[in-house]
């Protein structure tokens, strides 16, 4: 065989290996979840929580930064929402390259960012959207002006698959300062198909989480109360839920899976700082 022929054959084999390898990667790729969230430098919440929780669901996180915060495990002291062009550029680069199986929303921080998300979702028709309405940090600090909650309810909820507020957030969104979970759901369900209102903000011995559906059905999930307070529990839950939906799990089952996973991360939580506990979202050998 001539040298040129041998080179051609070797090149052909190399291309074949590349093609086979690429096909194998496509076949075994994990579902991709686009995360639009803020960055928490303490690592307890925000995009790091999203990434860890999605890794635990066997999904690939594609993190798009919406805001930068100054916070620790105690509270947030400042934040800056990124320019919409930067957020759009990040998201569009990911959408053009990766097959998005679900979208998870965290901190947006401004009405303009709500509109930016709507523009992004217009490129992803039919993709499940989990909206975690991050309005306050675990320590109570505000993460957006009051009109952000209104914009979420009126603009984002209609294009979302499910929202996952805790009861204080649900009260803000429903504009019912003393409302019960049922009263908040009645006010919010005309805007969204599914609503998971999480408990744990009282002193009851059990935590009651309730999934409300626009068709009138309701599902209750109860778990044992754990001691202490936690930084990033809402991010963990919403990301895990987005991951379960990306994997194709039915919504009610996905909610149960995400709640069970989140409870385990809180049970195994650690206290790396001077404030709240941080959920342990990955096994010790991966964390």
From TrEMBL:
Cell inner membrane recorded as keyword: no
Record's keyword annotation contains Iron: no
Pathway membership: Cofactor biosynthesis; thiamine diphosphate biosynthesis
EC number(s) per entry: 2.7.1.49
CDD domains per UniProt: HMPP_kinase
GO biological process: thiamine biosynthetic process; thiamine diphosphate biosynthetic process
GO CC terms: cytosol
Protein name: hydroxymethylpyrimidine kinase
Native source species: Stutzerimonas stutzeri (strain A1501)
Species lineage: Bacteria, Pseudomonadati, Pseudomonadota, Gammaproteobacteria, Pseudomonadales
Name of the gene encoding the protein in the UniProt record: thiD
């Amino acid at each position: 065989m001539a040298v040129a022929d041998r080179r051609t054959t070797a090149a052909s084999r190399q291309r074949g290996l590349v093609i086979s390898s690429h096909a194998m990667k496509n076949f075994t790729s994990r579902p991709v979840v686009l995360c639009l969230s803020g960055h928490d430098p303490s690592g307890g919440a925000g995009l790091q929580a999203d990434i860890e929780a999605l890794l635990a669901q066997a999904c690939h996180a594609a993190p798009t930064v919406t805001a930068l915060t100054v916070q620790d495990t105690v509270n947030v002291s400042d934040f800056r929402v990124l320019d919409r062009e930067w957020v759009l550029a990040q998201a569009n680069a990911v959408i053009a390259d990766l097959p998005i199986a679900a979208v998870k929303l965290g901190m947006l921080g401004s009405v303009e960012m709500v509109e930016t998300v709507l523009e992004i979702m217009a490129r992803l028709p039919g993709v499940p959207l989990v909206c975690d309405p991050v309005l306050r940090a675990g320590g109570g600090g505000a993460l957006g002006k009051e009109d952000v909650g209104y914009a979420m309810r009126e603009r984002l909820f209609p294009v979302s698959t499910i929202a996952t507020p805790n009861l204080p957030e649900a009260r803000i969104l429903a504009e019912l300062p003393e409302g019960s979970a049922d009263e908040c759901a009645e006010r919010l369900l005309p805007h969204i198909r599914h609503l998971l209102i999480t408990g744990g903000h009282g002193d009851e011995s059990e935590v009651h989480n309730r999934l409300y559906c626009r068709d009138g059905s309701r599902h209750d999930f109860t778990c044992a109360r754990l001691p202490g307070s936690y930084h990033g529990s809402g991010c963990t839950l919403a990301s895990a839920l987005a991951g379960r939906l990306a994997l194709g799990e039915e919504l009610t089952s996905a909610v149960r899976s995400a709640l069970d996973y989140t409870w385990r991360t809180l049970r195994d939580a650690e206290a790396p700082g001077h404030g709240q506990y941080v959920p342990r979202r990955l096994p010790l050998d991966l964390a």
